[in-house]
Write a structure and sequence with these properties.
- With about 475 residues, this protein is α/β, with parallel strands linked by helices.
- The chain is built from 25 helices and 6 strands.
- The strands form 2 sheets. It has a 4-stranded parallel beta sheet, sandwiched between helices. The protein has a two-stranded antiparallel sheet with strand order 5-6.
- Strand 5 and strand 6 form a beta hairpin.
- The longest helix has 16 residues.
- The termini are far apart.
Length: about 475
């Protein structure tokens, strides 16, 4: 059947429909990550009025999910076409040659095509099918690479991305029936990172659980919140992610999995391969590893960030495949060095504009790595993370980005740190309040006596003008103290 809830893919559907309804036969590959909506797009195409009018009963939708080898693919197609006996391959080709104009959709084609042992034979089967002039073909394929030997539609249909914010919002509201003005809707969409499968699962939960409860469950259960007890890729985010993680290409390239575990620490991803190499220094062939991750669509490009993992996949990796201690230490050192560059911005040391411009895109990553280290790192690494959390405060003020949550966490961790753990410029403090005061002075943030929390505050600039930090504080809705 056609998908019951379908938003944000109209342009893609229109492109595919236009291709398969033109005079020349068309062969289209719909690519993307698991749970991104490839099957839904193909079904939407299958049931479009102009497609139904042109092809009528000569439309075939065949799932290849159980076909793990070339012979399995042949058997799967033969069963759908009611072909039996010997020489099934020849019978399939004869069937399509005798048909009028026909549309064949092979869903989950990565299952027979991905294993290297049968890839060439599977490509030969596909090439033979597409040599039939009356056959129009659509394959859905997990990843970003197309099989060889087939003349695919030009220009290539790019891999599907997550839904745009408005489409994601509309889909969530349509499934859950919550109000569009629900105060937690935007945060829930950030949690699912606009991934269609994650939206569907979370929105179904919102039918009988409040959004407050769902957010609370996400913070405590993470990826487990999506578990519905069903073991199928279309209804289990865990299963969908595991299929990609344990695909033949990933199994054959263990370095790719190692790099993926490190990238899971970075909510904003890595800008380029050099960036990846700086945090994965033990990997000899970084280019090969990142290429595999792109091929299986476990990383996406977002703007200038070439290697970013979607939020639900990041959560799954951090819960089940967190980086080992030695690898984590390399990542921490990289981001500590970036944090150290921020020291002195307030007093005009160095090229302030250059530092802010270069490091602003890394604020989210810096804070995430520091917080992860404080929570899960080795005891001897925690004081350096606390120090780095104070080093970046000037960058937060002058960029208008980030939050004081990392500094607050550093304050809490610092009160528990023993004197012999303190290193570098962060010296042991005689009391928790003293460390709070030290951290507060580092970013001019007042401390609430009742809660111990850090509050952002602007500072007066020279010449009696309101400082850059104070202006950004007001724009972001921070409560200012003092006279400005």
């Amino acid at each position: 059947p056609a998908p019951s809830t379908f938003y944000g893919r109209e342009n893609v559907v229109n492109e595919v429909v236009q291709s398969i309804t033109s005079e020349a036969p068309a062969h289209v590959a719909i690519l993307g990550a698991g749970g991104i909506g490839k099957t839904s797009v193909s079904l939407a195409v299958l049931h479009r009025d102009e497609v139904v009018s042109l092809y009528g009963d000569h439309r075939w939708f065949i799932s290849c999910e159980a076909a793990s080898a070339p012979q399995g693919l042949i058997s799967t197609i033969a069963i759908a076409l009611n072909q039996t006996g010997d020489n099934l391959y020849d019978k399939i080709l004869k069937f399509f040659k005798e048909q009028p104009r026909t549309l064949l959709i092979l869903d989950n084609f990565e299952t027979p095509w991905e294993p290297a042992s049968g890839r060439r034979e599977t490509e030969d089967i596909l090439a033979s099918l597409t040599s039939t002039n009356s056959l129009n073909l659509i394959v859905t394929l997990r990843g970003s690479e197309r099989p060889l030997k087939t003349q695919w539609r030009r220009p290539f249909l790019p891999p599907l991305n997550p839904l745009d914010p408005q489409a994601a919002r509309s889909a969530f509201v349509a499934i859950s029936d919550i109000s569009e003005k629900d105060p937690n809707l935007e945060e829930l969409l950030q949690v699912v990172d606009n991934l269609p499968l994650a939206i569907t699962l979370m929105a179904n939960l919102a039918q009988f659980e409040s959004t407050d409860v769902l957010l609370s469950r996400w913070k405590s259960e993470r990826i487990a919140v999506f578990d519905r007890g069903e073991q199928h890729r279309l209804s289990s985010l865990d299963i969908s992610i595991k299929i990609s993680l344990h695909s033949p290409r990933m199994n054959q390239n263990p370095d790719a999995f190692h790099v993926l575990r490190l990238l899971a620490l970075l909510p904003d991803g890595a800008a380029d391969e050099q960036h990846v190499a700086s945090i994965a220094s033990t990997i000899r062939y970084v280019s090969r590893a990142t290429s595999v991750l792109k091929q299986v669509a476990l990383v996406h490009s977002f703007g200038r960030r070439r290697f970013r993992i979607l939020s639900p996949i990041r959560a799954f990796l951090l819960d089940h495949y967190a980086p080992d201690i030695s690898s984590m230490s390399t990542v921490q050192q990289h981001y500590e060095s970036l944090a150290a560059e921020c020291v002195g911005i307030e007093i005009g040391k160095g090229n302030i504009s250059s530092i802010v411009t270069r490091l602003s895109p890394e604020i989210g990553n810096i804070q995430a790595v520091l917080e992860y280290t404080m929570e899960s790192g080795r005891p001897e690494d925690i004081p350096r993370a606390i120090q780095a959390s104070t080093d970046i405060t000037d960058l937060l003020k002058y960029s208008g980005l980030g939050t004081t949550a990392t500094l607050a966490k550093g304050c809490r961790q610092g009160t528990r740190a023993s004197p012999d753990q303190a290193t570098g410029r962060l010296h042991p403090m005689p009391s928790g309040s003293a460390l709070h005061a030290f951290s507060a002075r580092a970013c001019h943030c007042p401390i609430s006596r009742s809660t111990g929390s850090v509050q952002e505050r602007g500072t007066r600039g020279t010449g009696g003008k309101v400082s850059y930090a104070a202006r950004h504080a007001r724009m972001r809705g921070w409560k200012l103290r003092g006279s400005y």
